Amino acid sequence: MKNVLTLYSSARPRGNTFAMVKVLTDLIPLQALYLDDLDIRDYDYDFGNQGDDFANVIDSMLKADVIVFACPEYWYALTPAFKRLFDRFTDLTELECLKVKGKALRKKQFYLFTTSASKKPSDAFVSVVSHTLNYLGWVFAGLVHVYCENKLDEGEAKLVLSDFVEQVSRG
Ligand SMILES: Cc1cc2nc3c(=O)[nH]c(=O)nc-3n(C[C@H](O)[C@H](O)[C@H](O)COP(=O)(O)O)c2cc1C
């Protein structure tokens, strides 16, 4: 069994994105962090923000084999908490002490989990993640989407998560 870390974000802590993560939690052991509860500050050109939770999140990512970004689509974009985290990935490319960690994350597998009110996520939404991972040299291993016009259907979520569960269970 691979070691899975899920970072999730949503404007409602118990909404559809949480429900998707909850379905996964019932299927496999994983660590889940709710990004909106963490203190991850905006990118700072002068790096005056280094005492926040960013370094802890990166260390948690380094301990995992598989990292899941679970994020609803809001106006073709990531949530503000994910946008902040992605902006902060810049630190991994600029700060000497963090560059080695950014490179170590190239050995991990990254997945994007999302819910939206459309049959599939928009190209704009997915490409923010795929381009960022590609730029950093991180592996975009897969996308899992659950259609949620209203409340997430747990049966459907279980079904769309089955391939992912099989892959991480293989070890
Ligand atoms: C502010 C906002 C913007 C949204 N924008 C989109 C969108 O661009 N495309 C889409 O398909 N659904 C959109 N939706 C629907 C959500 O993606 C969908 O309901 C999702 O499951 C909500 O997850 P949550 O409960 O974790 O917030 C939007 C919802 C909100 C609240």
Automatic annotation (TrEMBL):
Residues 3-145 form the NADPH-dependent FMN reductase-like domain. SUPFAM superfamilies: Flavoproteins. Transmembrane segments: none annotated. It is an enzyme of class 1 (oxidoreductase). InterPro entries: Flavoprotein-like_sf, FMN_Rdtase-like_dom, ISF_SsuE-like. Its EC number is 1.-.-.-. GO terms for molecular function: oxidoreductase activity. Keywords: Flavoprotein, FMN, Oxidoreductase. This is NAD(P)H-dependent oxidoreductase.
